[in-house]
Amino acid sequence: MLPSQLSFVWSRGLQEIAPADWQRLAGTHPMLDYQFLLAFEATACVGAQTGWMPYHLTAFDQGQLVAAMPCYLKTHSYGEYVFDWSWAEAYEQAGGQYYPKLISAIPFSPVTGPRLLINPACDAPALIAEAMLKQLQAFCQEHALSGAHLLFPDAMSADFCEQQGWLRREGVQFRWENAGYVDWDAFMAVLSRDKRKKIRQERQKVAQQGVTCRVVSGHDMTAQDLALFYQCYCQTYLRHHSSPYLTLAFFEHLQRYLPGHLQLFIASQHGEDVAASLCVLGEATLYGRYWGSLRDISCLHFELCYYQPQQFCIREQIRYFEGGAQGEHKLARGFVAYPTCSYHWLSHPDFHQSVARFLRREAEGMQQYVNELEERSPYKNIPDINDTGLPHIPLST
């Protein structure tokens, strides 16, 4: 298949794309699922009113969908977790208009995954990817956009961008890995002594405040459970004098269509539910996404957002737990740094080169930062992954 044989369509929403066609390309990543992305649009969490306008790119061969990219026109840089505010300021000081810009990403989700969704049966995926990226560039030039950006691509999507000369920006996040632990004590045993002591103290402090925790799957979640979670979620934003990105309707959509991908962790104090965290479950990864508390309870955030999900991963034999963006404090809870990236193409050649110089300097500093993080590893020795399988251990609370 040659790019000249492809026809391209820009869709103003996922509802313009057949769900089965999209799903064949999206694979098993839960946050690329048709219903997950549709939830943002169907509940108005993305749209002109929020500065996230869907503009998904699709490619067809003889009427068959063979490639797609989740894309959005952005009028700001909120909810991306790849911070380019200084680029916007520099571009506008030079007399340009940085917004709107075009991004390929999962809204409000700093989660690595495919961005160039190409039918694996295609003979020439690199040629299709090249044609797709050139479509992004042509779209930016046609509509006088400042540039296009791919956020948190997987290795294959990153390679395609690299081949086309897009600018790579380095990043770092924190991830916990289940190294074949048979139970919580096995995990604790591989930590350094001071980290074990700290975690035990934090968990004991939570228990002493009369807190217990339980796990509710998406299939078992009630309307009351979801309402409690959303109340807690909103409370977190209120404490920071901000407004939540997502609505209760968004989470209701996920619970209705993707219950198997949801895990809710609820904390109760003296029998009263007071906090909740909601995670998204993939094949090998649990993604920690949303949380909130109705009361200020010391160390509860660590218990509900880290320790309870880690125990869940041990019990259910889940290999990775991603705790969300940023947070060096995760190192002390068994997480380690791992690299992320984004790719960028700027329409103005001089600005493109200026950003390239900035990114080279930034990458040097990022490497030093990663080296420092590795020196602060919480482990006595980095554990090896046990690929022979894990026994099923009941979850303790």
TrEMBL record:
Pfam families assigned to the protein according to its UniProt record, in alphabetical order: FemAB_like
UniProt xrefs under InterPro entries: Acyl_CoA_acyltransferase, FemAB-like
* Name used for this protein in its record: GNAT family N-acetyltransferase
What is the native source organism of this protein?
A: Methylophilus glucosoxydans
